[in-house]
Design goal:
The complex is a heterodimer of chains A (about 375) and B (about 400).
Chain A: H1 3-21, E1 40-45, H2 54-62, E2 91-95, E3 105-109, H3 118-122, E4 128-130, E5 136-138, H4 148-152, E6 159-160, E7 170-171, H5 177-181, H6 187-191, E8 197-201, H7 202-215, E9 235-238, H8 257-348, H9 355-363
Parallel strand pairs in A: 1-9
Antiparallel strand pairs in A: 1-8, 2-3, 4-5, 6-7
Chain B: H1 15-37, H2 39-42, H3 53-65, H4 68-78, H5 85-109, H6 118-121, H7 129-156, H8 159-167, H9 169-189, H10 207-233, H11 240-275, H12 284-310, H13 313-337, H14 353-376
Helix pairs in contact in B: 1-14, 3-5, 3-13, 3-14, 4-5, 4-9, 4-10, 5-7, 5-14, 7-8, 7-9, 9-10, 10-11, 10-13, 11-12, 11-13, 12-13
The chains are: A mainly alpha (about 375), B mainly alpha (about 400).
């Protein structure tokens, strides 16, 4: 068993313990769900049900539900396929023309009180409680009315009071939890004239179902619906015709609802822990890259500037040196010229010099 | 301190204003009916179909299309794509309005809206993915509000408050991406608990991943799409920088959207393979699935690539609207169309006109709020008194 499932059960257990302390649950704080061998349940035997609707009537009475549109002795309603709704916790449907069945087959629908209820797992205010006796009950005082429980329930049981503007509730079978606490049977079980409903510990019910199958070979299919479906339910069904033919889905699988979401829930802390690290890392890497790029750019600019400056300096120095040299040469030339002129003046005084000679001296 | 004066011009009776006024009046009437007569009077919700378009459209589509905020701010502030900076404020604004309207819509949908804080204040159902969605949406709405406040503070001239919030940009962006990752994916994960009700072509253990990855596409496409609309109707409000960067934003986002769509397409195929649902492709639902995955994932992927490569803004903008429609179809499929596929036709859901009326009403409020804010606050231009952040 995985950690999250155990934790889930632990939470449910803790919730139940509080319940027990209030003196209302009779089974104490024993573990819930599959691990609880004391879980109560009901076995519905579709081969025995006669479709008399007495269970519907008793359910309506003990749960003080609004009166039905058509009276309970009116079996005409069986013509139509019905489901549980805001005024009805349980219905019986009639299925005709089933291959291999001699007459019509009846099936009672109500909450199956899953060992690990999808509704309870889906509720974001924990309005559903899996009680120690096996019942799954609903607390309207916290319900927001999001109806995610109705999305989640694989058996399409919870209904909603859409017509109430201010106090709409989710409505569903309670396994007559208030009666169980008083030591009474569920209303439907108590009244059933055909003994189609058997109340007891779930493990005993499984044994009873198997012994019926053994005692009457050919009467039943070799399957107890609810033993494993969606992780198991406390209400079980046995039938002589395929469950599909009496409106029960055979493709639900055996995975309990909390298992279906535990992967997604498990990702939450991982994302919450790792995303900030990852994103800060990406930010830091980008900033560092930007900084390095900027530094490199600055360094390149500085280097280019330095190179240009050095070149300019060199050119200047060369120019200066050249200018210096030119200047020196000019001075020397001037000095030389002056000296030559002086010499010529001296020689010219006694005798005039030839003009060619003076030209040659100047060009030298 | 001088507060800006809001000059309310006399409403001009343009076609848009007339239609908007009608929708708002009708919406208010339906609101009255909803909160006095209950859900039965205004919706076609049933015990088989507890979620209608107020969840399928207003929540699932609304949250996906509001993803532009986290996508754009992450691109700009975390991934260092500063050339997208002018796209951040409009994206944050539409994100904030989107989430605010999602929360408004939830008040219509849940049975007792005044109890919406109960999951946080009264009793925490931590085993529920809806709890995670609720917590993240509430927190992220707060984050978006704070991220949006600099624009309002600049408008109001509250310099110190504005500068304080701007200093939080990085932290808010990271927080926003974390929260968005979580709740965008969790919206998909909501349906993990009902494998028997969602058609096998859409049900997948990867639902959370599908929703998260496609929210990135939705965010990118919505930024392009809204940008095109803003250019058409609020060109005069844009400053030089915004106009200069806008085409680059559209082309850059188109390129990103093309890549993400390619990844998303492969993921969807992996989903079908993982569920071994290939044989369902030959059914009616299979044709519908193929239309979604080829017509609204693969083709937009291709045309985004073409548009980005050719630098053709017309193709990019058209494809953005196309991809957005694809996201709408996907969310409708998961929430409404492929959900309860097993039920007979007479038990299936089709919205009441009042449900559509409220959805239109809420979208209209969003557009009106956007118009007001863009007219008065520095969204499409940088306020001259402030350094961009």
């Amino acid at each position: 068993m995985s950690i999250s499932r155990r934790r889930f059960l632990g939470w449910m257990g803790a919730a139940g313990a509080g319940f027990a302390a209030a003196g209302r649950a009779h089974a104490g704080s024993s573990p819930r769900g599959a691990a609880n061998p004391e879980t109560l349940g009901v076995l519905f035997d579709a081969t025995r049900c006669i479709g008399c609707r007495k269970c519907e009537e008793a359910c309506n009475r003990v749960n003080e539900l609004p009166p039905p549109e058509r009276p309970f002795h009116d079996l005409g309603v069986l013509e139509k396929r019905r489901r549980t709704d805001a005024r009805t916790y349980t219905v019986v449907n009639r299925y005709t023309g089933i291959e291999g069945a001699r007459g019509p087959v009846y099936r009672k629908i109500q909450c199956n009180h899953c060992l690990e209820p999808a509704c309870a797992s889906a509720c974001f205010v924990r309005a559903f409680t899996k009680n120690a006796d096996g019942s799954v009950t609903y607390d309207e005082s916290v319900c927001v009315g999001c109806r995610y429980c109705m999305i989640a329930c694989p058996f399409e049981i919870p209904a909603y009071e859409y017509d109430k503007a201010f106090t709409p509730r989710v409505m569903k079978c309670t396994f007559c939890h208030p009666r169980l606490v008083q030591g009474l049977l569920p209303g439907c079980v108590e009244i059933c004239p055909a003994e189609a409903l058997t109340f007891g510990r779930r493990r005993d019910l499984l044994r009873i179902a198997r012994s019926r199958m053994a005692q009457s070979p050919g009467r039943y299919l070799d399957h107890i619906y609810g033993e494993f479906e969606m992780g198991g339910t406390t209400w079980l069904t046995i039938s002589g015709v395929p469950f599909r033919a009496i409106g029960m889905r055979e493709d639900l699988g055996t995975t309990p609802a909390p298992e279906l979401t535990k992967g997604a829930l498990g990702v939450v802390p991982v994302v919450a822990a790792m995303w900030p690290v990852l994103l800060t890392g990406i930010y830091a890497i980008n900033r560092r890259r930007d900084r390095i790029a900027r530094e490199e750019r600055e360094a390149a600019v500085a280097a280019a500037l330095a190179r240009a400056e050095a070149e300019a300096k060199k050119k200047l120095a060369e120019a200066l040196a050249k200018a210096d040299k030119d200047k020196k040469a000019a001075v020397e030339r001037e000095v030389k010229k002056a000296l030559e002129e002086a010499a010529r003046a001296r020689t010219e005084a006694p005798a005039p010099a030839s003009p060619e000679g003076g030209g040659e001296t100047k060009s030298g | 301190m001088q507060f800006p004066k809001v000059t309310l011009e006399r409403p001009r009776w343009t076609p848009f204003n007339i239609v908007a006024a009608i929708i708002v009046v009708v919406g208010l009437v339906i609101t009255g009916i909803r909160f006095t007569q209950g859900l039965a009077a205004t919706t076609r919700l049933s015990d088989y179909n507890p979620w209608g378009i107020w969840i399928g459209f207003d929540l699932l589509v609304g949250v996906a299309l509001a993803a532009g905020g986290y996508v754009t701010s992450a691109a700009c502030y975390l991934f260092g794509l500063k050339r997208f900076h002018t796209a951040v404020r409009p994206a944050i604004l539409t994100g904030f309005l989107g989430y605010a309207l999602v929360v408004l819509a939830l008040h219509y949908d849940v049975g007792r809206p005044w109890r919406l804080p109960y999951p946080f204040l009264v009793q925490q159902g931590t085993t529920s993915l809806l709890f995670e969605v609720a917590a993240c949406v509430a927190l992220y709405l707060t984050v978006l509000f704070i991220e949006w406040t600099p624009a309002a503070f600049e408008w109001l001239g509250l310099k110190r408050a504005r500068n304080l919030v701007v200093r939080l940009t990085l932290v808010l962006t990271i927080f926003g991406v974390v929260l968005s990752t979580l709740h965008q994916s969790s919206l998909g994960a909501l349906f993990l608990i009902a494998p028997s009700k969602l058609h096998p072509l859409w049900y997948s253990p990867y639902l959370a991943l599908f929703f998260f990855v496609s929210s990135i596409v939705a965010g990118l496409s919505m930024v392009i799409f809204e940008g095109a609309l803003a250019h058409r109707y609020f060109h005069h409000k844009m400053d030089e920088t915004h106009r200069r960067e806008a085409d680059g934003v559209a082309l850059g986002f188109a390129k990103a959207a093309s890549w993400v769509l390619a990844g998303y397409f492969v993921l969807k195929l992996v989903g079908v393979a993982q569920a071994d649902a290939w044989h369902h492709l030959a059914s009616g639902y299979g044709a519908w699935f193929l239309l979604e995955v080829v017509g609204f994932v693969l083709l937009p992927c291709f045309f985004f690539a073409v548009g980005a490569r050719e630098k053709n803004l017309r193709i990019v903008r058209f494809t953005a609207a196309w991809a957005v429609l694809g996201i709408v179809i996907n969310r409708f499929n998961v929430g409404l169309i492929a959900f309860n596929y097993h039920l007979p036709a007479e038990e299936r859901y089709f919205p009441h006109w009042m449900e559509i009326g409220i959805s239109l009403f809420i979208v209209t409020i969003g557009i009106l709020a956007y118009k007001f804010i863009v007219r008065h606050m520095p969204i499409l231009y940088a306020h001259p008194d402030y350094e961009p952040h």
